[in-house]
Write a structure and sequence with these properties.
Elements lengths: L5 E5 L6 H12 L2 E4 H14 L7 H9 L5 E6 L2 E6 L2 E2 L7 H10 L3 H17 L2 E5 L2 H5 L5 E6 L2 H14 L6 H17 L12 E4 L5 H16 L4
Parallel strand pairs: 1-6, 1-7, 2-6, 7-8
Antiparallel strand pairs: 3-4, 4-5
Bound molecules: 2'-deoxycytidine-5'-monophosphate (DC).
Length: 229
């Protein structure tokens, strides 16, 4: 493929974005940028340095003074997320870091900083970028925008099954409650809330298998880029 490809995928928590985007990027032979990991890196910084993820003034200073520099590298096609030059990829997936990420992502200084890093990366290479504001803010001109969603119950069930299979004890009702709280925070923040871009294709995967969702995403991309199968 000669023309650079930029694909924006947005959607709520546990919509399957990460795994579907990994698989889709592989199919298309391009890199996948998981922007949630970048917000999680800032959340991790807040936790580790004793700053409340709710403290917007302190976070403004952190960003202004470049105390939490986030970058990404790729090794064997997989994203490594770096915080102040240190690979923190393995420290980002826990619930506490996820909750901190959701809080810090409300603040305009944090968003402006990470959006600028993401846009710089997108000027350098073909990318499939997933997040919450990719189609609306990071890549408003992307040729392909997909808004991946599923019912809260379907997403909570996936998350619950995922936790159990990784050996974490979980309670379905609690998972659902946490997920609804996260949706509420992501959709109702004043700065760049989660919403589909006007020109996004909305893909509801509630009743689709992983393979069916992937095939559908591939079909949308190929139609837009006129790539033959
Ligand atoms: O996709 P995730 O769960 O790893 O994202 C963690 C948090 O970061 C999520 O609550 C919302 C926020 N986020 C965001 O505001 N904008 C993005 N582009 C990506 C994530």
């Amino acid at each position: 493929m000669s023309q650079p490809i930029l694909i924006a995928v947005d959607g709520p928590v546990s919509a399957g974005k990460s795994s579907l985007c990994d698989a889709l990027a592989k199919e298309l032979d391009i890199l996948h940028l998981d922007t949630g990991a970048m917000y999680r890196a800032i959340g991790l910084y807040a936790i580790e340095s004793g700053i409340s993820p709710e403290d917007g003034d302190a976070l403004d200073r952190v960003i202004k003074e470049q105390k939490a520099v986030v970058s990404v590298e790729y090794r064997d096609g997989r994203q490594l997320t770096l915080l102040n030059g240190m690979d923190v990829t393995g420290m980002l997936r826990g619930e506490a870091v996820g909750a901190a990420a959701s809080s810090v992502s409300r603040f305009p200084s944090v968003r402006r900083y990470l959006v600028s890093v993401q846009q710089r990366l997108a000027r350098e290479k073909s990318l499939l970028i997933d997040g919450r504001d990719i189609g609306t803010v990071v890549l408003p001109d992307a040729k392909v925008k997909i808004f991946l969603t599923a019912s809260p119950e379907a997403r909570a069930l996936r998350r619950y099954t995922q936790l159990l299979s990784s050996g974490v004890r979980a309670d379905y009702q609690q998972v659902l409650t946490d997920l609804l709280a996260r949706d509420e925070q992501d959709q109702n923040r004043a700065c760049d809330p989660l919403r589909p871009a006007e020109d996004a294709v909305i893909l509801d995967t509630s009743s689709l298998s992983f393979q069916e969702s992937l095939s559908e995403m591939l079909r949308i991309v190929k139609a837009r880029y006129a790539i033959s199968a």
